[in-house]
Design a protein that fits this description.
The structure is a single chain. Helix 2 links the parallel strand 2 and strand 3. The chain is globular and about 40 Å long. The longest helix has 23 residues. The strands form 2 sheets. It has a 7-stranded parallel beta sheet with strand order 1-10-9-6-2-3-5, with helices on both faces. Strands 4-8-7 form a 3-stranded antiparallel beta sheet. The protein has 221 residues and is an alpha/beta fold. The chain has 8 helices and 10 strands. Belongs to the glucosamine/galactosamine-6-phosphate isomerase family. 6-phosphogluconolactonase subfamily. It is an enzyme of class 3 (hydrolase). Keywords: Hydrolase.
Length: 221
């Protein structure tokens, strides 16, 4: 793994947005449609802000999420709300958004894959999407041969400790490019340990050579 280091959040967001826009534009040019898997948290907001200015045909772009919290779609904790407020504004509002909750869209996700671009964050416990250490069915979610696109995650783990829906590892690997956005020294240490072989969920993405993975880091959020 080569860690891409950026001096600031703005510089990281510029690079991530450019990389994702390039992947979406390529999908539109070669296949007539494109797909983006987004994420919640703090890191993607500035990327969404920049993608709003992407000069692509958003009406032919499908957007979904790597995970979702099982809360009201208007709740501040909802990842869908972040996407609606930060990305699906102006021209990008023409994109087709596929929520993960309350009904996991297995068939739609399967038809959509392989995804052109997947944007992920990572927790200090090494989780990606909501494939969180301590989940009772984590092994199922991390099984690369699992045919399911999504996995329900029980309440009581994660922050906040609410029930969730997550894409499985096998569905994340049905992608053409994965972007992992991290910030701060603690997460840099986690990604280094994972790259060295530590048993974190993110390790499964770093260790494979099926899908290109870019890990972008800045010192602060």
């Amino acid at each position: 793994m080569k860690l891409e280091v950026f001096p600031s959040t703005d510089a990281l967001a510029d690079a991530a947005a450019f990389g994702i826009e390039t992947r979406l534009a390529e999908g539109l040019k070669t296949r007539g449609r494109a797909s983006l898997v987004g994420t919640g948290g703090r890191s993607p907001g500035p990327v969404y802000d920049r993608l709003r200015n992407a000069r692509i045909d958003w009406a032919r772009v499908l957007v979904t999420l790597c995970d979702e919290r099982c809360v009201d779609p208007e709740a501040p904790e909802a990842n869908a709300r972040t996407v609606r407020e930060r990305l699906l504004v102006g021209e990008p509002a023409k994109a087709h958004f596929i929520p993960l909750w309350p009904e996991p869209p297995e068939d739609a996700l399967r038809a959509l894959s392989p995804f052109d671009a997947v944007m992920l964050g990572m927790g200090e416990d090494g989780h990606v999407a909501s494939l969180i250490p301590g989940a009772s069915n984590l092994a199922e979610g991390m099984d690369p041969a699992n045919p399911a696109m999504t996995l329900p995650i029980q309440a009581g783990i994660g922050t906040p400790p609410v029930a969730r829906i997550s894409l499985t590892l096998s569905s994340l690997l049905k992608s053409r490019a994965i972007f992992i956005l991290i910030a701060g020294d603690a997460k840099r240490e986690v990604i280094a340990r994972a790259d060295a072989g530590a048993d974190y969920p993110v390790r499964a993405l770093l260790a494979q050579d099926q899908v290109p993975v870019r890990v972008l880091w800045s010192p602060t959020h």
